[in-house]
Amino acid sequence: MEYQFKVNWGDTDAAGIVFYPNFYKWMDQATHHYFSKLGFSTWKLFHEDYTGIPIVEAKCRFQSPLFFEDEVCVKSAIVELRDKVFKIQHQFFKGEQMIAEGYEIRVWANFKNGKPKAVPIPDEIREKMKKALSDNIQVLG
User: Fold this and answer.
1) What is the rounded distance in angstroms from the CA atom of residue 69 to the CA atom of residue 59?
2) Does the keyword Hydrolase feature in the UniProt annotation (predicted)?
3) Could you read off the pLDDT of 38-51 as tens digits, one per residue?
4) Which residues neighbour 53 within 8 Å (Cβ) at sequence distance 6 or greater?
């Protein structure tokens, strides 16, 4: 799935280069966009079912800088799917050039009692995730 945006002035540092934490913010936005495109608003899941997808690990490798007003396309794909956990990969492109790539590992969690508890990904959502997967998926128990 693709998530597109334009770099804002506030995303840059004094040198006019995108400040690196913004890549993590954009990975998070791309993940929420991914689920929205599958038909599952993460906002709605949380407010109706107390379900969230907290991050337990994230990494990003930078290859080239981005600047104010650059148009960016983030291509996201699930690359690993377990019972309660998934790994989503994000690749950042400016035109044809890959700028950065990273991933998030997230847990399907219920927040009903205030404290997150890992729970199995619902079958309906799991099936839609499988249909949208890249060819290099690892489906694990």
Assistant:
1) 24
2) yes
3) 999 999 999 999 99
4) 31, 35, 42, 106, 107, 108, 109
Structure tokens that stand for 97 in this block: 């050039």
Taking residue 97's Cβ as centre, other Cβ atoms within 10 Å add up to 9
Q: What are phi and psi of 19, to 5 degrees?
A: -75, 130
* First-last CA distance in the chain: 24
Residue 96 structure tokens: 């044809």
What are 14's two structure tokens? 């004094």
Phi-psi region of 110 (alpha: psi -120 to 50; beta: other; left: phi over 0): beta
| CATH number of the structural domain spanning residue 107 | 3.10.129.10
Residue 17: domain span: 2-139
Mean pLDDT, the chain, as a whole number?
92
Domain count, the chain: 1
Residue reference for tokens 């997808």: 53
pLDDT tens digits for 64-117? Answer: 999 999 999 999 999 999 999 999 999 999 999 999 999 999 999 999 988 999
Closest CA to 7 of 65, 69, 66: 69
What is the residue type of 4? Q
Amino acid sitting at position 88: I
